[in-house]
């Protein structure tokens, strides 16, 4: 109850952007990365993730890093929520999430194509 009185109420637009950020950066990037790095021919491209975890991060380790990043961004948003530029934080996280999810999906598609091609050549 005390926390609720200390934090601002999100507008519907801010809430929508945060939900999109969670969908694309949180879930989209997480799911596609976890699926991708389970393949032997794909490694994590983000140097920060490679440094913190490995080239093939575990699902739990990656979830902790992503959750921490989202919490830090949300706290940054709360620290400037009265500013007109505050909405830029969830907007940029959403855009980043869309980009990295799309790149991951493309990487997965290419990996599947290469895997299928190499299996056909082995026959």
UniProtKB/TrEMBL annotation:
Domain of life: Archaea
Domain DUF5658: 20-108
Record keywords, A-Z: Membrane, Transmembrane, Transmembrane helix
Record-annotated membrane-spanning stretches: 15-37, 58-78, 84-105
Protein name (Swiss-Prot/TrEMBL): DUF5658 domain-containing protein
